[in-house]
Design a protein that fits this description.
Length: about 220
């Protein structure tokens, strides 16, 4: 499963980003805004609380990557967009993790260890996993190993859900032949990607519509 996941990660991850970023946060009424009773909580998804610390870590990392890549400071509008996308990402991960729990999909400690140790960003010049690089990264994003690994475990579980659902999608010969007859030059793989995107997006959006998501509006007032 994990080899397949890594091989197809990019394609599968694209699936949920399309509709979620495009419309969920602003248009479907699933989010409730207001002053949170607990100022340490950034967002609550169906009763699960996501700490401000996790939000701040991801948001600051995004802003830092922008500065490092462009050599410029992001504008206030860009920072606001980063905050929104960070909340979206956290909500998305949590919803998929909750679905993974419903489907009894789990991530073992061995899978998590293999996932982390396989990341190129944590490898040294000899292409070996280097704990010092790993802990330096955690220090830079101000998360403990437990906090980061819990977050990553949820992401892997969500990725498994996407792959499980995508694996059930098929393109019949008649579908492909009809597309070809219509003059389309789309490949079978591209056609499969489009179909998977459509099915997963509809599935995900329906879940979000019925989710209870409470966002602490204080996290959008940061400067």
């Amino acid at each position: 499963m994990m080899n397949f996941l890594r091989k197809h990660m990019r394609k599968i991850f694209i699936v949920t980003i399309i509709a979620f970023v495009g419309g969920t946060f602003m248009g479907f009424g699933a989010y409730l805004f207001g002053p949170a009773k607990d100022f340490d909580i950034a967002v609550t998804v169906n009763g699960t609380k996501i700490p401000v610390k996790i939000f701040s870590s991801l948001y600051n990392s995004t802003a830092d990557m922008y500065r490092n890549s462009t050599k410029e400071s992001p504008s206030q509008e860009q920072l606001e967009a980063m905050r929104i996308k960070t909340v979206q990402s956290l909500v998305q991960d949590e919803i998929f993790y909750q679905q993974a729990q419903q489907y009894k999909i789990t991530v073992s400690d061995a899978e998590l260890k293999n996932d982390i140790q396989s990341m190129s960003m944590f490898r040294n010049r000899q292409n070996q996993f280097d704990p010092n690089i790993y802990y330096a990264f955690l220090n830079s994003i101000r998360l403990s190993p437990k906090e980061y690994e819990t977050l990553r475990k949820k992401q892997i579980a969500g990725e498994k859900v996407k792959i499980t659902m995508a694996s059930a999608v098929k393109i019949s010969d008649s579908e492909y032949e009809a597309a070809a007859a219509g003059g389309s030059e789309i490949s079978r793989d591209e056609m499969m990607q489009i179909k998977v995107n459509g099915i997963l997006n509809v599935w995900f959006m329906n879940i979000v519509k019925n989710a209870k998501i409470i966002t602490n509006d204080n996290i959008f007032k940061q400067t």
